[in-house]
Amino acid sequence: MAMTAGAIAAASANAAVVQLFDGNATASVDTDVGMRDWTVNGIDNLFLQGFWFRTAGMNREFNVGTLPLTGQFAVDTNPFVDNRPDMLSLQYTGSGFTIEPTWQLRGSVGGSFHSDLAETITIHNTGRTTLEITFFQYSDFDLGGTVLDQLVRFHGAGNNTAHQEDVGGIAMSETVVTPAPSRWQVDSFPVVVNALEDGAVTDLNNNAGPIGPGDLTWAYQWDFVIPAGGSVVISKTKSLVPTPGSLALLALSGFVAARRCR
Fold first, then answer.
1. Mind listing the pLDDT tens digit for each residue in 35-78?
2. What stretch of H or E contains 196?
3. Dihedrals φ, ψ of 158, to 5°?
4. Domains of the chain in sequence order
5. What is the average pLDDT across 194-223?
C-alpha cells in the first residue's frame, strides 16, 4: 500500500488508533501510519511521525504500517502518579524480520508545556541469512499547532540531534541515543514523504539545515546489516518545551491554532 502525502489521511481512516496519556500530555498512534498527534496543554504539535523501510532487493520503501500487525500492548508505567496507559509496544512482521516500535509518554503539571517521549525500535532478523535493511524515521511536527513558522536544524555528534522551533515559542529536540544515523534530511513539505512514497529507492541527502521559517519536515536513515538471529535497537528521546519568555504569551493568546488539511 503506497501512502503519498495526499493519501496518508485516507490510510489512517480505517486503522486502529491507540491513545497514551500522562499528566498534561496525550499522544495518538495510528497503527497503519505512525504517531499522529502529541498534544500538550491542549495544543497538538504533531502531524505525523512514521517509519519506512526497505530490504535488499526491494525497489522502493514502504511504511512499516503496511506490514501485518502481529502484536500490540499498552500499559501504565507510573500508576501512582497517573493510572492511564502511557506506553505502547507494537510488533510488525515481514518476511524474515520483525519491527517493534515502543513509545513511552511523560507529561508534567498543567500550564508547564513540558512533555517527553522515549522511543525504541527493535528490528529482529528472524531468518537464517543476513538481513540488509534500511530504516527511516520521518517527522512532520507542527509545533504550537501552526504550520508555516517552523525552524529546523540537525546538530550534535553525527547530526544525531534534530532541533525544531516554532516562531510562537515552542521548541522540540530529538536525540538519537544509539546507533548514530547513517543519513538525514530536512526539507519543505512534502519533499521527503513524497520521496519515500515515489516508487523508487530513496537515500536522504544529508541536508542538515538550518532552514525556515516554513512548513518543514525532516527524517533520519539507518543502514543495517543484521546477522541471522540478531537484532538492532534504535533508541531516541524527544522533549517538548516552551522557549524562554514564551509561557506568558502562550497563556495570553489562548492559542487558537490553524491546523493544515492534507
1. 999 999 999 999 999 999 999 999 999 999 999 999 999 999 99
2. helix 191-196
3. 65, 25
4. 5-253 (2.70.98.40)
5. 98
